[in-house]
Design brief:
The chain is mostly helical. The protein has 13 helices and no strands.
Amino acid sequence: MELNKQNIKKIIGIITFAVALLTAFQHFSVVISIVSKILAVIAPIIIGICIALILNVPLRALEKNVFKFIANSKRKRVRKLLRPVSLISTIILAVGFIAILMLIILPQLKNAIVLLVSKIPYYAGRIVEFVEPILHKYGINYDLKFLRPEQFDINKIQAMLSKIFAVKSSDELINTTVGVTSSVISGVTNFALGAVIAVYILARKESILKLTSRIMKATLSERFCVRLDRIVGVTENSFSSFITGQFTDSMLLGILCFIGMSILRLPSAAAVAASIGITALIPVIGPFIGEAIGFIIIFIESPLKAVFFLIFILILQAVDNNFIYPKIVGKSVGLPGLVVLIAVIIGGNIAGIIGILLGVPLASAIYILLIDALEERERKKELKVQSEKSNTQNGELGE
């Protein structure tokens, strides 16, 4: 390597990065603490950006399709109403969608929990009747009295819960209450601030992008700006494709589930279908969560119908995975199954539900960029080989 000015800068940069990385590993707990504090401070901004990315998909659809007549108006004042009208409509749709789902699911879940608690003694008695003869058959004389229906006394359950959640002192009670309250208030505050930030971002996204572009061009090299534009474009396309496809597929899956359950006359069709549709928004693990919730809700009322539901939903899930989902989402977010699972796990550990939802499109963007980098490297290598061959051939001809 020639020790020119550019290569010396690269060497210094590599050494600096290595020293910084080594120092970070040596003081890992301090680094984690600092990062946690920084994330806590900027949490509303991160939440706002995530909300904006999600709501930008329906906002753009409303602007291009539903309210297109406003954009085509000859009056400038009318055209200026396009963004406010679309943004307000997007917020109303999002809030209304969440409210409707909660109104459908929560009453059904409440009834299911109440029914489950009331049937615990019955199921416990059935277990005793089934297990005890088997134990006696093999000469095991074990009394399952703790599972007998008369053992399920509400007073005992309350006493057990009191011991589990017992507070040793009034100070501990105060500290616990203050801690829980502050956590709830902090979460609600961060989400509220994030929602405000998201609305501002969506309302002024063109101006924000122009300002960001100006700052980048003024402070960064042209080559880096081109690469960054490519990264932003790929990421935006991945987000849009994933969110649109995932939402459409989830809605269709919920509707098909409701129709199928209604035909089979399975109980709690609306609540179970809504649960399936919502949890299907979570990649990989979401459908299994929805199936488990639906199975439990139906099992409480009828174990036999729960088995029919499980068979039906597994068939429906297979049809969706092999035919519906690939057609809706397409190949734009095509990732290997292992990469999707890793993205879901990492995203969930970092940012909970939001991380799970956004982990896959981020992984898709990174995957596409890595493929681009690999193809570019392969092209450069191929050109280098061709150049060497050409030089060799020219040398032979010269001789």
